[in-house]
Every structure is written in structure tokens, then in C-alpha cells.
């Protein structure tokens, strides 16, 4: 499957591992409208690609993961543009709601990806950076990362996912409200302390290296087991314990019948590394 996009590089640094790199470093990897559509398409394709078992999400350049929305581009084109027909309040609201829902769906494709997604953040990581990486399964960063839920500083409430997903990221609600209401920067060590990231590394290169090591480990395991585990963790986050137990019983009624289970168990007994079929 070919992955060719103007502002994204999709590479395969190891077997079954895909790396998605945001590639607009001269603009601090800020997003304009087409980029939202492209990242959604990339993650939809990776989700179903049998050659991919893990995805790393990173960004080009040394200065930024992403500065978020390209505000200048947004005011020149799209729903926030000042050009076009004059609409009354109701009609403008309908158009804006559709626009917001489309962008929400684009970013939600990262969360919907069947494969585990490891986010590697560095430098400026504002606004949309939080939207995207709260959709990821594992977040790590470099020591120079500067985070911010930036939207109140441009006169709006974050509407692409941060205010929905950050409260479910197992971080203190008081802290969530503080950073969302003030739009203040917070650094890598604070992000680690509250649990927004699981590790901090001295540089972007070191963080990427660790992400690749982690991805190789995940790619070596049964894709049935890994993808079902991701599905269940996300399901359990949004449901009761009883619902989660019922769901995994239904899933494993099928998954326990795979050859992966037999191969994994025998590999332990025979002290050999199992090889799992593509999914």
C-alpha cells in the first residue's frame, strides 16, 4: 500500500512498524484544512494494513511537534474565513457545527486505529498536539517539550477532543481545568508528574529510539492479542466494570480459538520465539 502525502511522511523503520511524521517544519508543523483530512486517511489505511501492527506518530524538525491550528490559513479558507455569503445566525451555526464534527472525526481516526499508536512529542506541542495525542495509546516526549491547551488564547473552547479526552487520561481534574482555563505552558517533567506522558527522554532522537524499541516489542506479539487488548482498554475506559467483563467474554470466545494462543503457550514451554500470522 502506497502512502504519499504532501505534509506527512509515512515510513516503515522496522517489520510491522509504521512511522507517521508530520512534515511542515517551517510552519512549526501547524495544520491547515487538507492536513486534517490527510491524517485521517493515513490512520484509516494503517488501521487495516496487514503489514502494520504498531504506529509511531512524530513530527519533522527540531522546533515543534505541532503549533496546532494554522490560524492564518483558517481565516483565509474554510468555516472561519471572512469571505463568502452572509448567513443568519442559525445557518452559520449549522455550517460551523458540520465543520467542527468533520474535524473531530478526522482526529478520532487516530483513536479508532486498530493498531497501538505511540506518540513521540518534542518542542512546541500546542492545541491540536493535545487533541491528537490524547487519541494515542502511549505518549512519550523529549525534555524540551512545551505543552499547552491553547484554545482559550485564541478566543474559543477546545472542540476537537482535548476537553473530552484529557479528563479521561487519568490525570488530576483540577490540573486539567487549570491548564485548559489558563492556556499556560507546561513542560515535560510536569507532564510526567501528572501522568500525561509515561516517560521523558533527553532528546527527540532518544525518544524516537525508545518508541521504536517499544514498537518492535509490540510488533513481535500476537496481533490478535495486542489489538483485542487495545480495544478492551478503550471500551473499559468508557463503560462499567460489569460491561467490560461481559465484552471481553464475548471477544475471547472468538479470540481464544486462534492459533496465536497455541503458538504463544508452546513457545514458552519450548523456549523459542513464536511467529504470528498477519491479521
Automatic annotation (TrEMBL):
Source organism superkingdom: Eukaryota
Subcellular location(s) per record: Peroxisome
GO molecular function, one term: delta(3,5)-delta(2,4)-dienoyl-CoA isomerase activity
Pathway membership, UniProt: Lipid metabolism; fatty acid beta-oxidation
GO biological process: fatty acid metabolic process
InterPro entries, per the entry: ClpP/crotonase-like_dom_sf (IPR029045), Ech1-like (IPR045002), Enoyl-CoA_hydra/iso (IPR001753), Enoyl-CoA_hydra_C (IPR014748)
Protein's UniProt name: Enoyl-CoA hydratase
Keyword Disulfide bond: no
Organism, as annotated: Elasticomyces elasticus
Assigned GO CC terms: mitochondrion; peroxisome
Entry similarity comment: Belongs to the enoyl-CoA hydratase/isomerase family.
Record lineage: Eukaryota, Fungi, Dikarya, Ascomycota, Pezizomycotina
Keywords annotated in UniProt: Acetylation, Fatty acid metabolism, Isomerase, Lipid metabolism, Peroxisome, Virulence
Signal as UniProt keyword: no
